[in-house]
Every structure is written in structure tokens, then in C-alpha cells.
Amino acid sequence: MGKVIGIVSGKGGVGKTIFSVNLASTLAKKGFSVLLIDTNVTSPNISFFVGSPIKRYTLTDVLSGECNINDSIYAYTKGNFSYMPSSLSINKLYKVSISKLKSIVDALKTQYDYVVLDGPANMDGEFLEVVRASDELAVIATPDIISVTDALRVLEFGRRHGRKIIGLIINKYEQKDYNLKVKDIELLAGDKLFGAIPRDENIKMSLVKRAPVCLLYPKTNSTFAFEQIACKIAGLPVPIKKKNLWDKICFWND
């Protein structure tokens, strides 16, 4: 039986989908079978991140009863994982029954080691169903007070619904006066952070090239951070490299 990991956030623009794609790719590189599902049915965009925006069948069609589950699963050969997109067409939304998501995911978790759910960017009906369908939750935020505060609400929501919390992950981290420091975020959260992804211009280029940054730029600090986080999630030895400026703020190695 596989494990279902919900990737959620309290607001948009924090890089949740980028994280989901790179987590799926990194877990696949470790030899795990991985399915990435775009559960943000109203605002889907995973298809753009893997270079295939138009597909005949999607999660939207499964939720509306118009196709079988396996008809909407596609292989992403560059990243060696499978993915299930949601439809870009708004015409199909009125047929969707999002309450079916958990039963769909439960059927799929028997076929993969990991099912990664790229969730919506706010706490709406889709969000609730993603929480219900997940075994564990990873909450993504950026190092600003609004994003972190919203993320803490999501963490509390997940706990109240009995979900295992992987932890809070800070994306686009850089040491700037206007950003919260790690110790400040941990003080607000009341717990150690699970990890952080540094701000990396290569991530922008990966969007242009429609491929995970961890595949295009394997030597960057962001790729190394994704690998550390994936290993922690999978219970594998966490890689450590020679200390540099980024390593000094990679607090989860302390």
C-alpha cells in the first residue's frame, strides 16, 4: 500500500506546484514508483510544468464519471514518474464531484509507492477533499509573515482532521532584511521547520523548459534541498555536503 502525500498551502504564489513536481521527480530518482495528481481542479497547471498542456482524459473526467481512472494517467518520461492532470476547460467543471477524490486516490495508492497530491492554494472545498484523501500533509509557505501565518492555519486544520503532518517547508528562501528568519518562523510555528528551498533563478528557467529543476540543474542548491526533503519523507539517509553559505541555513541538518 502506497503513501498519499498532500502538498498544500494557505495562499497562492508560494511555489506549491513547483515543489510537487520536483518532489515527485526526486522520489522517482530514488527508485520509487510515483503518481503526481493535479487536484487543483478549478485552477490546474501541472500540465504546463511537465510540458503537456492538453490531454484527452484528466482527473476532471474521472470526477465527472466520463472515463476510467487509468485512462487519465500519463507517463512523464523525463522525470520517470506518472501524472494525472486536471482539465484546462471550464466547461467540464459543473459536472465535477470533488467528493469522489478520496475513493479515486484510495484505488490508486495500491499501485504506487507514493501518490503526490498538488492541492489548491486556499482552504476551500477542494482543499478539504485533498486533506481527506491524504495520509500526510506537507505545507508550503514563503518566508513572509502573511504566508507563514496562513500556513499555520493549514497545519492546524490538518491536525484537527487527524492527518500526519510532515511539516512546514519554506520555499523561495533567501536571507533578506524583509524576510522572516528561520528562528522567527520556528518561533511562530512552535516547531522546527521540515526544510527549505532556496530562491533559485534556475527554477524560472525550468518553467520555460517545462521540466523539473532537479533534472535540468542537478548541481544547484535548490536541487540539493529537494533531495534532502525527499529523503526525509522517504526515511532514507539525508545527504550532507561540504558547508557553504546555503548549508549554514539548512537548519534540518543541525
TrEMBL record:
GO cellular component terms listed in the entry, alphabetical order: cytoplasmic side of plasma membrane; cytosol
Positions of the CobQ/CobB/MinD/ParA nucleotide binding domain: 5-206
GO biological process, one term: negative regulation of cell division
UniProt-listed Pfam families: CbiA
Highest taxon in the source lineage: Archaea
SUPFAM superfamilies linked: P-loop containing nucleoside triphosphate hydrolases
Keywords: ATP-binding, Nucleotide-binding
One MF term in the entry's GO annotations: ATP hydrolysis activity
Protein name as catalogued: CobQ/CobB/MinD/ParA nucleotide binding domain-containing protein
